[in-house]
Amino acid sequence: xxxxxxxxxxxxxxxxxxxxxxxxxxxxxxxxxxxxxxxxxxxxxxxxxxxxxxxxxxxxxxxxxxxxxxxxxxxxxxxxxxxxxxxxxxxxxxxxxxxxxxxxxxxxxxxxxxxxxxxxxxxxxxxxxxxxxxxxxxxxxxxxxxxxxxxxxxxxxxxxxxxxxxxxxxxxxxxxxxxxxxxxxxxxxxxxxxxxxxxxxxxxxxxxxxxxxxxxxxxxxxxxxxxxxxxxxxxxxxxxxxxxxxxxxxxxxxxxxxxxxxxxxxxxxxxxxxxxxxxxxxxxxxxxxxxxxxxxxxxxxxxxxxxxxxxxxxxxxxxxxxxxxxxxxxxxxxxxxxxxxxxxxxxxxxxxxxxxxxxxxxxxxxxxxxxxxxxxxxxxxxxxxxxxxxxxxxxxxxxxxxxxxxxxxxxxxxxxxxxxxxxxxxxxxxxxxxxxxxxxxxxxxxxxxxxxxxxxxxxxxxxxxxxxxxxxxxxxxxxxxxx
Length: 483
Ligand code: NAD
Description:
Layout: E1 2-3, E2 6-8, E3 11-13, E4 20-24, E5 31-36, H1 40-58, H2 62-78, H3 80-91, H4 95-119, E6 124-127, E7 131-139, E8 142-146, H5 152-165, E9 169-173, H6 180-192, E10 199-201, H7 206-215, E11 219-225, H8 228-238, E12 244-248, E13 253-257, H9 263-275, E14 285-291, H10 295-307, H11 327-342, E15 346-349, E16 353-354, E17 365-366, E18 369-372, H12 379-382, E19 389-395, H13 398-405, E20 413-417, H14 421-430, E21 435-438, E22 457-458, H15 463-469, E23 471-479
Parallel strand pairs: 1-5, 8-9, 8-11, 9-10, 11-12, 13-14, 13-20, 14-19, 18-19, 20-21
Antiparallel strand pairs: 2-3, 4-5, 6-7, 7-23, 12-22, 15-18, 16-17
Helix pairs in contact: 2-4, 2-6, 3-4, 4-5
Bound molecules: nicotinamide-adenine-dinucleotide (NAD).
Nicotinamide-adenine-dinucleotide binds at residues 146-150, 155, 173, 175-176, 206-207, 210-211, 214, 225-227, 230, 233-234, 248-251, 282, 384, 386, 412, 452, 456-457.
């Protein structure tokens, strides 16, 4: 049995208390490794290692940071298959997803922020004849990064790389449901020449290892991606300690479909945006709003397509949909399917447990579900399910569509399907979400601000937003004239 370790000061170490828990492959129910149940003692060791590395890393040249981060990207590319299989075994996601999306994107994160380090610049403000102000953008020092299980290495690196690129040392924790690729990243960092202590990776439960990161007085900023309730709890600890916080939280994203859209392309994309990674992407659309005129046609076409989506062994290269992340999460998703029926929803397809033949017979599989007839204020239209469950709601006109789309307390991402240019701009302006995709979904430019409003979080990641988050701005005012 493989016992995973923490990565502290460039070395793999056992957790101080030598406690472990099981890492289960959710597609088979097998225990695949043991995960360190780290706590505040392990975090203290990681912080000590980071303190030793901090000054030298903060003063490293941009060329050095670029070269190391870029080398890590190359190494991730060269280990694509090993990393992809590890991601799939931890999460049950289809191997093609790990190979084509998760791991390549982790490499892109390193490449992107390596070059960002070389290009990042600060402002100066001239007071004519009197003084010049210039802004220093200095590393915060030691920062904490906590990530979820749905896109494990992809989101883990989306946080840690801008932190490293701006000269910080990092204490990072992956989700306890997806520890392996972060574990493997340690040796990749050593191979690339990242100095010991610059990145420390601690495994364990959120309420122990994660909370110890948030509590530690030397860790001055927390970048967190995960559930809204967890985010609120973290904020309640970090805010009174005046830590900088970036919170990327849940969503209940609307997909707004007008009759004037490119219908064929829209149907194809709705399948993707609703059911990719079994609906376990924070950006997935789950409230599908359709203009009345095409509601029946769309409903029938969608049902036909969704019926073809049958989950299967995620390690099969042909698999398009794997299992959910855990039996526990499957139970949560199934409870929402029951709730939707109790709330008066009509189940149009799927929504039943699924048992593939062979080695996946004990896996956490569910057939993708479509409901109609649920009111906009029903719990199933207000709460995040985070699984392959969508609801259909008709609307009459633009005003009605915007009202329904904005009904949610969340505000992460919306998609909008129309060929009318004026409408695309008009509706985009009125949607209360941090991201609007028009006639596309998950088309990502890493320079753009990424994040949500309201219950979907605080702050933005991506591009300069991330580089700014991980730096302290200091204004230096130099007088050169009479006062
Ligand atoms: P989660 O909140 O349960 O856990 C996320 C991370 O926080 C894990 O590493 C966990 O161990 C840690 N954690 C849990 N309790 C903690 C505590 N008390 N203190 C510190 N750390 C703690 O979320 P999850 O189930 O892993 O992920 C799914 C959620 O993440 C969904 O709500 C999804 O929408 C959201 N998500 C949001 C984005 C985004 O960019 N907005 C991206 C992906 C996922």
